[in-house]
Amino acid sequence: MSNLDDKKTRTTGRICKHVCEKKNRQCKFSAVKSSDYCVEHLAFNNQLHIVEKRVVCPLDPKHSVYAKNFEKHLKKCNSRIKYLGDFDIKDINLRDQVNSDIELKEIIKKDRPELKSISQECKTYRELSENELKVLIDYLIELDQQLNLSNIEYEILNDDLIIQEAEKKNEFHQKHLKQISSIVSHVDKMMNENFEEEESCCLVELGAGRGKLSYWYDQSRGKKIEKNFKSKFKTVNIVLLERGSQKYKFDSMLKQNTDQNRAEFMRIRIDLKDVFVNKIPLVQKSSKCILYGKHVCGCATDFSIRCLKNSIEDSGETKVKILGFLVALCCHHVCEWDYFCGKKFLEQHGIDSKLFYIVRSISSWSISTDRNTTPAPEFIFGHKRSKIGRICKNLLDRARIEYIKNEITIPQHYAIRTKLFYYVEPDTTLENNTA
User: Fold this and answer.
1) Given the DSSP bridges, would you call strands 198-206 and 288-297 parallel, antiparallel or unpaired?
2) DSSP assignment of 289-311, as one string?
């Protein structure tokens, strides 16, 4: 228990003596009369008899509630399970139904036995010896040459309106708007290429955050309509998917703009692992659907790919033909093997569950701000270090691309074209891969 300053005690009165373990400090609430604890912490210190009866909340034992308000509290507790609708299906995108590991290639076991020992003993590159790290890096370079991992084209598009706005901003905002400009232009190209006119399309932004990407798409579309630009779709509806609580500044502007254009807008607070896109009401109303996102981090990319898979493979009445899928990839260093969708491809090339985490940790070298600082030996300093980090990123992304190509069951009338490309220059962001 920490000691309170005498002066603080005199000015604020008696303070609850409960020590919050997680915050490693004393509670700052006022103590109730005849006790050394506040109302909340009476339940945790066996002094409930002093006040009206309180009980610990069964949904979250970290807080308590008055017994008389117990039933009412269960209906509004922030820890309650919230059912959002038919599209809310717990863990539907979490992992594949069949997740069996295959054996490493015999050639890997025979020619490089060191890889097997590395994968069994270490979790990050920092735990490897200099010899082990060199063996692994040599193997990654071989994979790069064998699979042509670094052969990624630049496809940078620009939206005139967004670029004009970017020129008025500081460097930080310019970088974000340049990325948004390219993504919006690619979505627009995908939407209006080689198709007949249709009633409506629904843009589903994955990991939407504040919804800035969809806001700028809507602004761009509005300006093009004013200039009599012909679009395949009469209306474009927008759905934002985000698990966290956000400021809703862009939501209000999106709602206003979509209402004016006779379109619809909705935000759904849900984890990507739990959403079945085809059953979202606004998606069901629309003729076509595009899934897209800017910097969908780590596991969220894998959940997004399974969103795509489940939508395409859905054979029920709610079936919607997916028009496109566009995700700006990032944060490979926080991917998880349990949820990673490209396991089969990695295992076929000698990367098992343990070696995966080492490759994952090395991927961070590609975006390191200080490329000459590392506990590793000299042979990976500078440019070579950055290049090896990029190889690891490209390897993980190729595994995801192969999953989309080979693991999704496609209806007869449908075809999937996949591509990994750079959507902005590296001086805009080093996380410039898009699938």
Assistant:
1) parallel
2) EEEEEEEEETHHHHHHHHHHHHH
